[in-house]
Amino acid sequence: MTSSHTADAPAGVPQDLWLAARRAQMNAYVPYSSFPVGAALRAASGTIYAGANVENASFGLTRCAEQSAVQALATAGERAFTELVVVSSAVEPATPCGACRQVLFEFAPEARVYLVNTAGAVRETTVAALLPAGFRL
Ligand code: THU
User: Fold this and answer.
1) What is the CATH number of the domain that holds 105?
2) Which domain holds residue 126?
3) Active-site annotation holder among 55, 66, 110, 124
4) The pTM is what?
């Protein structure tokens, strides 16, 4: 965790969220895809919650990093977040899958989203832009 490669957020990306997401990415359990992803959310309280993807031999049981982070947030009793950083090592920063977009939408349609890769590329968006007309009960 001491290398500068890990420590420095790309310009414009919140440093604390980036660091939490990178740390989570390093804990990703990805024996099947070798595609580690880390996500970190800033809850409405200011607390940061992180998640990593956790795969399973029964592939459909794989949990994405974004959903892991939302589970941590909700389990702690939080019900909203303002910002999300998703880190992958892909050439183009990974974008949340369709299921994750709906999970994010449940708690924070207006949240700012930073999609980044470990080379420093950044794509900035919002949950609502990623999921227009998300489902609500
Ligand atoms: N994955 C995530 O965790 N988040 C994303 O935004 C994209 C995909 C995971 C699921 C699986 O473990 C691996 O990346 C390859 O699809």
Assistant:
1) 3.40.140.10
2) 17-130
3) 66
4) 0.95
